[in-house]
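Appendix B, example 12.
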Amino acid sequence: MPACVRVLGIDPGFGTVGYGVLEMRASKIELVSYGAIRTEPDEPIPDRLLKIHDQLERLLQECSPDESAVEELFFFRNVTTAIQVSEARGVILLAMRRHEVPIFEYTPHQVKLAVTGYGRAEKGQVQRTLKAFLRMKETPRPDDAADALAVAWCHLAARKFPGGVRKA
């Protein structure tokens, strides 16, 4: 395992894409940055996808991740939303691939399990745990950014303890 690894975690979305960058040196995990890429509902779909792509490209150039962790999609009740998020996720995966950043995918259950030890933890519990683990003064916001940090944390846990993060 390299002495230092930087991971870009992504919570895919269409209106908001959360991102979080964590770095692990030896066994210590440090927060590098986090935030969200936002698109406006009144923008045409192709323009929203282009905005996600362009901002992610910029982020990839700025943070130079060694690996990426992307949350897998889960069941949606709204088919239109599922299609839009899937399209955004495709743009995200393409950008990662073009930058030759290895992509690892995790289910929401795996992420919650890695962060809190409980695969059905509530969002607030995940956020409070991350805040403590990363020694943050405030709870990470927006929720999408907190989710992305959790995905990055999950990946680092999977690297540190292979087989410890498994699918439900």
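The CA atoms of residues 24 and 137 lie 20 Å apart. The mean pLDDT is 92.
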